[in-house]
Every structure is written in C-alpha cells, then in structure tokens.
From TrEMBL:
The lineage of its organism: Bacteria, Candidatus Tayloriibacteriota. GO terms for molecular function: peptidoglycan L,D-transpeptidase activity; serine-type D-Ala-D-Ala carboxypeptidase activity; transferase activity. InterPro entries: Beta-lactam/transpept-like (IPR012338), LD-transpeptidase (IPR050979), LD_TPept_cat_dom (IPR005490), Peptidase_S11 (IPR018044), Peptidase_S11_N (IPR001967), Transpep_catalytic_dom (IPR038063). This is L,D-TPase catalytic domain-containing protein. It comes from Candidatus Taylorbacteria bacterium RIFCSPLOWO2_01_FULL_45_15b. One of its GO terms (cellular component) is extracellular region.
Amino acid sequence: MHDYIDKNAFGFIVKFSAALIFAFFSTTFAAKTAAVFFLSDTEVLPAPLIVVREEALPTTIQAVPKRSERSFAAGSLEDHVPSAGKFIGIDLVNMELRLYQNATLIGAHKILSKGKPGSHWETPSGSYEVKTKEKNHFSSIGRVNMPYSMQFFGNFFIHGWPTYESGKEVGDGYSGGCIRLSTDDAETVFSFADLGTSLYIFDREEQIISTLGLALSDSVELASEAYLVADIQSGEVVMESSAGAKMPVYAITKLMTAIVANESISFDKELALQDGEAFSETFGIFPERMVVGDLLHLLLLNREVDSASTLERFYGKNNFVDWMNDKARAIGMRTARFADTNGISKENVASADDLFELSRYLYVKKSFILGITRRPDKIIEVAERQFIVLNEHPFVGDESFRGGIATDAQEVGKQSMLTFFRVSVGAEKRLFVAILLGSENAALETRRAIEEVRLATASNTF
C-alpha cells in the first residue's frame, strides 16, 4: 500500500489556506480592500478602497480645553404622554401596558411576554401608532392565532395569548417580539385603541451613567462638514460641529435598511432573487433564493453586492422606504429622510444628531446588527459554493473597533463614516461613536477623533 495525496484535494487545501491567509492580512491593515471571493479558487474580486492617508496624529494635549456641554437625555415613558387624546404607554422595564385618556391614566395591564433582548426578534422601542386591528390575526411566522391583535410596526403586534392551529395555547417564554397580554386584557386594549392611536415603548433601565467631563484639546481640527463624537452610554457629546445640519448620509442608510428588514421580515426567511440582484450581476452566478440573515451580512459588509434590492422587494420599494422613515421618526431622528435602501441617493439625509439616535438604538436594541458590522468576515454559501465576505470598514482589526459603516469617496465624492469605538477609562470601558459627514478623508479624521478621546481619558482623573 502506498501513501498518496489526491491532487484535487491537495489543490483545494492550498487554495483554502491561501484564502485564510488573505483574509487575515486583509483585516489587519489600516487601509483595506473589501472583497468577496470564492473559497474554491480564491479569486479576489474588485471592490472600492478606503484610503487612510499617512499623516501625523496628535501626541500632546494643549492647555486650553474645548468640550461640548451638550448631552442626549435618556427620557422616560411619562415624557411622551400627550396632553389630549388616547395614548398607550408600554413599559418593558416594569412589564406594564398603560392606557391614558387626555394625559390621565385610566388603566394598567401586566405584560406577560416580550421579545428576547439581544435577539433577532427583540421588541423594538420608540414612538409608534396602531396601524391595524384584527380580532384574530394568524401569524405565518409562528403559525399561531393571536387574538385581539394590533400591529404597530412590521412583524410586531400587541395581542392576547396565542394558540396553535389545534387550539392548544403556546407555552410560557419570550415572544417573537410582540407585546403579549392575557387575552382578557388584550380585548380591553383592543376596545380602547383606534387606528392611529399613538403609543410609546420604553425599554431603558433607569440608571444614571455618569458623564466623564472630558477636556478635549484644540490640537485637531476635523475638516468634515459636520461631525459628532459622543459617549453612547451616557449621551455626553465630547466633539461636534454642525451636528444639527441635515446632510447626505449615503451608505449609513444601510443601517436603517437592516433595522427595518429585521423588524419586518423574519431573519430566517428565504427570499427569491431576480437577475441583477445580490450575487447575480457582480459575480455571474444566479442563485434562486437567499435567507434574510445572509442578505443582511452582504448589505452591511460589502458595497459590491446589491442585497438591498432583494430586501426592499418584499414589501415593494416605496413601502419599504416608508417603513424606514416611520422607523426614523419612531426612534427620534427628527430631520432624517430616506429615499432608497442602498444609500446611493443624495436624498438620503440626516444630521449627526439624528445618527446618534440611530447609533443608540443599535446599541440598546439591535446589538446583533451592530455585531454584524464589527465582524471581520462572513462565510456565505450560495448556489453550492462558499464565499468569504470581508468587512470594508477601515478599522476592522483595531482592538478598539466595535462596529460601524463607511462610504467610499470614489462613489459619491465625499465620505461619510459612523464608527463605534471603545476606550478604557480607569478600570471601566466606555463606548463612543464618531459620526462624520461630508469628509474628504473620513478614516483619517475618525482616527484623529479616537486618539483625541484616548488622550483625554488618559489625562483626566475620574
């Protein structure tokens, strides 16, 4: 008997190893070329490049401090109760649904179940309204009947205790994201609510996270037309310029596309693809279907793949974009307006203040979407072939990087970038977000902002 190595197997091993080596080095350099490539032949496909020009970073702090005195207040459920009309207040911290008439509390009902925090089906927070009412809604996702259902956004409803088609009640545990009441309580709320009745979902622990009072220097002048750097946990703004100005946001739009897709389409649902969508146009293969989870990874990690078109077609482009604008209002993005799902249009606009609210929603309610933007790569199987999708954000591989999304200047002329980064403050780690709009070199300026915060936290005594 002779030892041997199959030539095809050996060739695959060599090529697979080359793919892994390429992925490793691609995620360790500051300037990266994002790519999707075949594991079978390691063909690297072209993608735009975000360049960090080599320039000196600040190493000292000037004596004269400069900092914003502004912060984003967390608010409470009571802050949203209107002075007139009907209102539904939903407190997910204390698990209670409250009914108000002309600002007077007229009833309170125990919430029996909500979506699991941190999961794909976590219950959203924010301002909404009752969109539909059905005495019995059949969920095609859970295959259950939901009595006295009131839809408020996407796949999310207020309803009574659900039953299977056999009539058997579902067991205890987390819901699929809906606000689940007893059936009697749901009937009461159903009778109270009208189509269009406003509601607010509060889901933030009432704990005070202290601000740091950072003294930032004047040594760095960011050239972006607008920017904001803030502590995502306390809401403290530490650097800003024209943060209220409404500007094109380009690829940052995809974060809202991902949120709406997740909250209105099941994460595991397979969607049909058409020619020119997702992998078809760019890579010359024509899969018939892809699951939403894989489409979200493609949406957030790679600009070459048009997964937004597949996602938007589930409701139709106009309806999907309407959901995006509804969601923006729901989470407090006061001036934001979206026109498409892929971030190409200059009509996708928001202020840096708006994008902070979006960032905080991602941090508090959609941590798994934030996690997608943080990962260095994702292996996706399409049409019986495996692909490695590399993250395009220029700070992938930096130990402080905690997620974000970037736009390439080659596409739009000016860059926008949203970057979460973590900084050590004594024994504590704090999460910041840097939002830059209208930048000639967003990667360099974001790096300067990160270094500025690091220097300030290192010099302060807390």
